[in-house]
């Protein structure tokens, strides 16, 4: 899966073509790309890689380059190909760590210094309070129906939660699966808003 | 798109890094290629973080969560968000409980409460529509009453014929009638195959009154009981463990109970047949397993009906019902149901 080392640039035209290829004929307005990137980050994160974002971008760049240089890619689906490339990128990240005599554990985050150092309790408390303030603001940005869904869906003890979800699905006339997906998306949106607020301060 | 459902337990194990390597690799691929799986994975991860924040994780799962899941800064930040969100939601519900009425543990929904919750939040519901629904319910209830009376008469007739059947069984050359022992004290007795068993009081799946009663939080103080023939049957409904050990239902079983009927509510799936095995709390077989059991209902309201001899359940012991999918290929663990038996 190694590509020629010559300089290659991800131009807007190449990127546009890459988006079309990912969309498989259905114009998703870039959503498919964002989804794929999110899945890549989650994949590398589950593998406990130190820099999941960088590895995700590396994977997407390689796929886009291959598409640009060869014109087409023979594969079951774009998603499957992205996964295949991701596996190579992951294995390479492990091998390159071995060549540099870096212990695998250090590459894979078990001894990640950031993870070992616990912030003081007061800082944690302040961070949590700030996050709750941002939540208040971001909840206000949601539509009423979505506010209802996210509060009813995620709040409560285990059994109460199950009952709430069944009632919610019945009230909205949708399946439990559809409700789960919808609630998940609202929560992702809320979380992104909260982080944006936190980053802006 | 692959419509195969994925067992919640397997997904949780995958997130905790405890799945065998070949299965984990399969899930790795599915997380890219199967949109349904990817969505289920994301939802499961959020539920797992919430469970940790709410103190619902215990034992090995808790250990794995803290040692493996929390090793990643990205995942730690998700847990931080979950903590803040749960605190925020709790404060909100305490400050303004009328804004989103939630089910309370142990509460029983009345029919009127069920309907008022069902229609709350909907944009338009003409009053005549509600009246029409009420009329349909009355019609269905009347039909059920007629059917029930007819069945009762049939049972009475069969009971009257009982001694004649027994007597004829003792005569040589007659058809042998097989009786299932109700009071076996041997813990290794295998239970009867329940494939064709019907629920004691069947109701149409579309009956909201039945659904409202049957979908209550699962901590029954007094079981439904009925008598058939010589011994009592206690009935309970169990919901699957969301993750790990968590809360365990306590089933209070009257002393003279011969059999325990259990309805196991299933998570949404497209599987038609299952097997159920009773295990003790250390995971050893506890002397009962079903044959192939077909799921009742459809879509989001599927369930399994099983009957366990009450004599197998020792008072004070905790048991696990392990449900695995049955079909082509290797059986896969689908769901677990945990309960503690108390015989009084």
Specify the helix fraction band of chain A.
over 70%
Radius of gyration of chain B: 24 Å
Strand content of chain B: 15-25%
What's the shape of chain B? Answer: globular
Number of alpha- plus pi-helical segments of chain A: 10
Name the helix and strand elements of chain A from N-terminus to C-terminus, one letter apiece.
Answer: HHHHHHHHHH
Query: How would you classify the quaternary structure?
Result: heterodimer
- How can the largest sheet of chain A be summarized? none
Instruction: Assign an overall shape of chain A.
Output: globular
Order of helices and strands of chain B: HHHHHHHHEEEEEEEEEE
Indicate the low-confidence ranges of chain A by residue numbers.
Answer: 110-116
Q: Biggest interface and its residues per chain? A: A-B, 63 and 62 residues
Radius of gyration of chain A from the CA trace?
21 Å
What percentage of amino acids of chain A are in beta strands? under 5%
Would you count the extended β strands of chain A for me? 0
Report the end-to-end length of chain A measured between terminal Cα atoms: 42 Å
Uncertain runs of chain B:
104-115, 162-221
What's the overall average pLDDT of chain B, rounded?
71
Largest sheet of chain B: 6 strands, mixed
Provide mean pLDDT of chain A, rounded: 84
Number of helical segments with 4 or more residues of chain B: 8
Description:
The complex is a heterodimer of chains A (about 200) and B (about 350). Chain A has about 200 residues and is mainly alpha-helical. Helices cover about 75% and strands about 0% of the residues of chain A. Chain A is built from 10 helices and no strands. Chain A has helices at about 10-25, 30-45, 50-70, 80-100, 105, 115, 120-140, 145-155, 160-170, 175-200. In chain A, helix 1 (about 10-25) packs across helix 3. Chain B has about 350 residues and is an alpha+beta fold. Helices cover about 40% and strands about 20% of the residues of chain B. In chain B, the strands form 2 sheets. In chain B, strands 3, 5, 6, 7, 9 and 10 form a 6-stranded mixed sheet that branches. In chain B, strand 5 and strand 6 (about 285-290) form a beta hairpin. In chain B, helix 3 crosses helix 5. Chain B starts with 7 loop residues before the first helix and ends with a strand. The chains are: A mainly alpha (about 200), B alpha+beta (about 350). Chains A and B meet through helix 2, helix 4, helix 7, helix 8 and helix 9 of A and helix 2, helix 3, helix 5 and helix 6 of B.
């Amino acid at each position: 899966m190694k590509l020629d080392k010559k300089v290659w640039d991800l131009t807007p035209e190449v990127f546009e073509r890459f988006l079309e290829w990912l969309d498989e004929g259905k114009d998703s307005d870039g959503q498919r790309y964002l989804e794929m990137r999110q899945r890549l980050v989650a994949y590398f994160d589950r593998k406990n890689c130190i820099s999941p974002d960088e590895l995700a971008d590396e994977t997407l760049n390689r796929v886009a380059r291959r598409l640009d240089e060869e014109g087409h890619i023979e594969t079951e689906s774009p998603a499957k190909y992205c996964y295949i490339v991701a596996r190579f990128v992951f294995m390479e990240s492990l091998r390159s760590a071995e060549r540099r005599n870096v212990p695998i554990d250090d590459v894979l985050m078990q001894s990640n210094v950031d993870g070992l150092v616990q912030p003081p309790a007061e800082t944690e408390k302040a961070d949590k309070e700030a996050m709750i303030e941002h939540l208040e603001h971001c909840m206000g940005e949601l539509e009423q129906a979505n506010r209802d869904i996210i509060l009813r869906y995620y709040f409560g003890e285990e059994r109460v939660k199950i009952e709430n979800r069944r009632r919610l699905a019945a009230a909205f006339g949708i399946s439990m699966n559809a409700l789960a997906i919808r609630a998940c998306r609202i929560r992702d949106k809320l979380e992104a808003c909260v982080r944006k607020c936190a980053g802006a301060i | 798109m692959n419509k195969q459902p994925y067992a919640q337990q397997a997904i949780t194990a995958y997130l905790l890094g405890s799945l065998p390597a070949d299965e984990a690799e399969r899930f790795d691929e599915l997380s890219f290629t199967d949109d349904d799986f990817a969505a289920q994975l994301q939802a499961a991860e959020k539920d797992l973080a919430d469970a940790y924040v709410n103190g619902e994780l215990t034992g090995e799962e808790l250990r794995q969560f803290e040692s493996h899941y929390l090793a990643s800064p990205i995942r730690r930040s998700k847990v931080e968000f979950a903590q803040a969100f749960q605190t925020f939601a709790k404060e909100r519900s305490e400050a303004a409980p009328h804004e989103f009425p939630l089910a309370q543990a142990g509460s029983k929904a009345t029919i009127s409460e069920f309907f008022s919750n069902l229609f709350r939040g909907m944009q338009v519901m003409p009053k005549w529509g509600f009246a029409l629904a009420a009329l349909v319910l009355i019609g269905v209830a009347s039909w059920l009453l007629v059917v029930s009376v007819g069945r009762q008469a049939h049972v009475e007739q069969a009971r009257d014929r009982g001694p004649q059947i027994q007597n004829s069984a003792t005569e040589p050359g007659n058809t042998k009638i097989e009786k299932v022992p109700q009071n076996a004290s041997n813990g290794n007795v295998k239970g009867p195959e329940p494939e064709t068993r019907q629920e004691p009081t069947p109701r149409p799946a579309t009956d909201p009154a039945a659904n409202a009663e049957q979908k209550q939080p699962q901590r029954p103080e007094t079981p439904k009981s009925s008598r058939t023939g010589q011994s009592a049957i206690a009935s309970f409904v169990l919901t699957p463990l969301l993750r790990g050990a968590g809360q365990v239902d306590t089933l209070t079983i009257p002393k003279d109970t011969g059999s325990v009927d259990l309805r196991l509510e299933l998570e949404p799936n497209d599987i038609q047949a299952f097997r159920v095995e009773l295990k003790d709390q250390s995971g050893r077989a506890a002397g009962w397993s079903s044959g192939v059991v077909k799921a009742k209902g459809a879509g989001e309201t599927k369930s399994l009906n099983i009957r366990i001899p009450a004599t197998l359940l020792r008072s004070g012991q905790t048991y696990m019902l392990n449900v695995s999918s049955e079909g082509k290929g290797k059986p896969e663990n689908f769901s677990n149901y945990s309960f503690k038996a108390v015989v009084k």
